[in-house]
Amino acid sequence: MGSTPGDLRDELFALTSAFRQALLRQRRAGVWAAPGAATARPAGAGDESASVDSASPALGVARDERRDERGEPAVAARTLAVIREELGDCQRCKLCKTRNKIVFGVGAEPAPIMFIGEAPGADEDRIGEPFVGKAGELLDKMIEAMGWGRGDVYIANVLRCRPPNNRNPEPDEIAACRPFLDAQIQAVRPRIIVTLGRPAANVVLGRDAPISALRGRFHEHRGVKVMPTFHPAYLLREPDRKRDTWSDLKQVIAELERLGVKSPRPPKA
Question: How high is the mean pLDDT of the chain?
Answer without folding.
Answer: 83
